[in-house]
Amino acid sequence: MFGLGLPELVIILLIVLLLFGASRLPEVAKGLGSSIAAFKKGLNDSEKEISESRGKDKNV
Asked: How far is CA 38 from each of CA 20, 28, 33, 34, 44, rounded to the nearest angstrom?
């Protein structure tokens, strides 16, 4: 997973807790999850559009 081990993930989590506080952590995690989902959707849409355009080029 990106070369990150358990110690690195724990350090990142502690830094996030210090920056945002425990009360805002769920809100930050939700925003991050939404951003990742939107990014993946954009990638899938782009890949689909590229594959469709390649298919149209072959039919011409």
From this structure: 23, 15, 9, 6, 10
Burial of 20 (C-beta count, 10 Å sphere; 0-12/13-18/19+): middle
Q: What are phi and psi of 21, to 5 degrees?
A: 85, 155
Two structure tokens written together for 21: 């506080």
Q: Answer whether 0.90 is exceeded by the pTM.
A: no
Q: What is the pLDDT of residues 9-48, one digit of tens each?
A: 889 889 988 988 888 888 988 998 999 999 999 999 999 9
Residue spans per domain, the chain: 6-59
